[in-house]
Every structure is written in structure tokens, then in C-alpha cells.
Amino acid sequence: MSSLVGLITRLYKLVYPPGVHLSTDPKPLKFGILGAAAIAPFALISPAKSHPEAVVYGVAARDRARADVYAKKHGIPKVYGSYEELLDDPEIDVVYNPLPNALHYEWTVKILLAGKHCLLEKPATDTLEESQKLFELAESKNLVLMEAFHYRFHPAIQRVKQILDSGELGPIRHITASLALPQGIVGAGDIRYVYSLGGGSMMDAGCYTLSCVRYLVGSAPTSVIATATAASLYKPDENAHLIDGAVTATLAFPNDVTATITSDEAMPHHFGFIPRLPQVYVTVKCEGGEVKLYNFVMPTIYHYITVTPRDGKSRTEKAYTFKDGKGEEWWATYRYQLEAFVDRLRGRTPQTWVDKEDTLANMEWIEKIYETSGLGARPKSQFTF
Ligand SMILES: NC(=O)C1=CN([C@@H]2O[C@H](COP(=O)(O)OP(=O)(O)OC[C@H]3O[C@@H](n4cnc5c(N)ncnc54)[C@H](OP(=O)(O)O)[C@@H]3O)[C@@H](O)[C@H]2O)C=CC1
Ligand SMILES: O=C1OC[C@@H](O)[C@H](O)[C@H]1O
Fold this sequence. Notes:
Layout: H1 2-15, E1 29-34, H2 40-49, E2 54-60, H3 64-74, E3 78-80, H4 83-88, E4 94-97, H5 101-113, E5 117-120, H6 128-140, E6 145-147, H7 155-166, E7 172-182, H8 206-217, E8 223-231, E9 244-253, E10 257-267, E11 279-286, E12 289-294, E13 304-309, E14 315-317, H9 333-345, H10 356-373
Parallel strand pairs: 1-2, 1-4, 2-3, 4-5, 5-6, 7-10
Antiparallel strand pairs: 7-11, 8-9, 9-10, 11-12, 12-13, 13-14
Helix pairs in contact: 2-9, 5-6, 6-10, 8-10
The structure holds NADPH dihydro-nicotinamide-adenine-dinucleotide phosphate and the ligand O=C1OC[C@@H](O)[C@H](O)[C@H]1O.
């Protein structure tokens, strides 16, 4: 009963964050958003409402009318008629880039050339080389650039890492990570099915499962053992054969550790009409037992961590806040991420970070998985600077 009340309270506060403010900071960090993207209200607009040092100051869309409607709906004070116009505004300190994957490179270059910090949606770019160039540029301009792997900032995944690193369960043997959604959530016209926009399940949900197993093992893979892809349900254009609607990859890591990652954008309904439940979990089998985190991507909604030592009693933990009390039960992964991002921009030490090496390793192995699958790399941007 108490966990049901907890769930309802968390969800309520997630939607209506307490202490919604107009920033109390006399000089808050002003964020601008490129595109009236579906993810921005979750990833930035709502989290910023409870952060005293961050405000979402402006939004730009390709079509000004679309930006107007979006700004009105989300209480964003300033609207721009083009992305360039937003980047030219000296009032903006930081730009959130939630454009389709294939546009991440071009627009992050432009953001950095405009002298703004950038919170960049995952996956960082279509190719490893593009991510390398972005970080070189950010470093040369002394600007903060981070790939928005929000799940990393939540206490739940960090608790799993802590359990593994404590040695309680002995060395890791095999990890299984899954992010698979039922058909119908990602609609037919979605950017995720368009090859020229950097679509594909490995790019979308798969980049989380890869990131997660790399994080928990604590190193990069050494090889791709096998991959299997399934064609996408939807075929928006002539390049649909290059899109993985679902992908499973088995990876080797140092010390004989292996991992199997699965992602699916549209699991078919049972018997053609009964929707499947989302499969979002990571299970780590160790020499001395097993730990499972159910819902590592959106743990604020609900999660559990089950620890089953081989020779002991199984236990279940929850980690909505950090043990030292930092965070709030209702903070989404994105809110924890924003806390760290603002801390870094304000010269404080963030609780954790997704650094350049982390992003580059993820991009490198996304590419290798695509190579092994036979689908080939995602299209390189034609943009040069
Ligand atoms: N962190 C997370 O939890 C999530 C991250 N993502 C990531 O965020 C990004 C956006 O995803 P999502 O919000 O679902 O996507 P949307 O399609 O809702 O948003 C993408 C935006 O890109 C703009 N855009 C610019 N050029 C194009 C083009 N040629 N075709 C289509 N759109 C274009 C559109 O802006 P305009 O308004 O100017 O037309 C649109 O609003 C992706 O990189 C995705 O991987 C997505 C979901 C969850
Ligand atoms: O970033 C994301 O998070 C959840 C996924 O299911 C979604 O497709 C993806 O874009």
C-alpha cells in the first residue's frame, strides 16, 4: 500500500514539480531549445522548473508558428523564427539539441561556434568521427558539451554499479540489457525509422543498452560476437531496408565477461492485438549471484533492484534518492542530469558526468555493431566548417 502511495506521489510531483519557480537566481543560466521536439518537455522544460539556477528562455523551430504554439504551451518566454536566430541571441548561455540524430553534428558545431554550451541528445552523432570533432571543438572553445545519457545520473543505476564494485557478488560473468517497447509507442512517421535522419534501433534504444553494459563492466567491449536485426514494421522511404527495427548484439569484454543487449522500437502485439509490456531491465550475472535492475531508463516512475547472492537470501532495494539524501524521490533522471549539468557550468563538481571518452566509446561500438550487422554505418553529415 505504501509503495502505491509512493508511486502516485512520485508521478504527481513529476508532472507538477513542487516549488515551481521563476528562477530565484538573479542571473540564471538561460537555455535555448532547437526544435519543438517531443522530448524537450521531459528532458529539460519540466526539470528546469524546479532548478533554481536554470530557465528555459527560448525555443526555435523551422516554422515560427510551431515554435509559438510550443512556447505558449510550455511557458517559454522567447520564440525565434529559425535555429540561427536563437544561436545569435547573446542572452542564451546553453543550447539543448534534441534534433534528429543526423542533425546533431551540424547543429552542435553551430552551437559551439556561437560560443554556447551544449546539452546534446543521445546518440551524440551518426558517426564516431563526428563525435570526436565535436569534442575537439568544444575543448578548443572551452565550452561544456555533454551527451544526455540521463539514466546515468539516477541513484538506481549508480546503486547497481556500487553493488557490483563492492565485490559482494564476485566478478561479473554476463550482462543482459533490454530496452524494448510495444508497437504503437513509436509511430509510423517517426524520425527513428528514417535512415537519412540517423534512424535505427541501435541508434535509439540500443545506445542506452550499450552505454549501460559498458558502464557496469567498467570498460569497452573487445569484440562484437554476434548481431541479429529485425526489419522495421514501418517503411517510410526507400532506405527502410537499412533500418533495424530491433537489434540484439552479443559483446565480449575483458576477463571473459560477455553481454547481450536487445532493443526494439515496436514489439509486435501478442496474437496481433494484445500489447506487450515494455522490456526495460538490466540483469548482471556474477560468479557469486545476480543483480537485476528493472527499468533502468525511467526509474523514477518505478524500479526495483533485486540482489540474489548465490549462497544467501535475496533482497530488493529501491534507490529514488542518494544515500546521502541528495535528490528527491520524484526527480526524473533528467532532473538529476540537469543538477549535474548546471553544477558543471557553475564551476561546482557534478555528482557524475558522461564524459568525452564515454561518448566516444559508445559511438565506436554502435558503429561496430552496425558494421557486424551488415546494415552499415549511419549516414555521415555533409556539413563542413
Ligand atoms: N533523452 C531521452 O529520453 C530521449 C531522447 N531522444 C532524442 O532526442 C532527439 C529528438 O527526439 P524526439 O523528441 O522524439 O523527436 P521529434 O521528432 O519530436 O523532434 C525532433 C525535432 O527536430 C526538428 N527537425 C529539424 N529538422 C528535421 C527534419 N528534417 N525532420 C524531422 N525533424 C526535424 C523538429 O523541429 P521543428 O520543431 O523545428 O520542426 C522536431 O521538433 C533524438 O536525438 C532522440 O534520440 C528522444 C526521446 C527520448
Ligand atoms: O531516448 C529514448 O528513450 C526511451 C526510448 O524508448 C526512446 O525511443 C528513446 O528515444
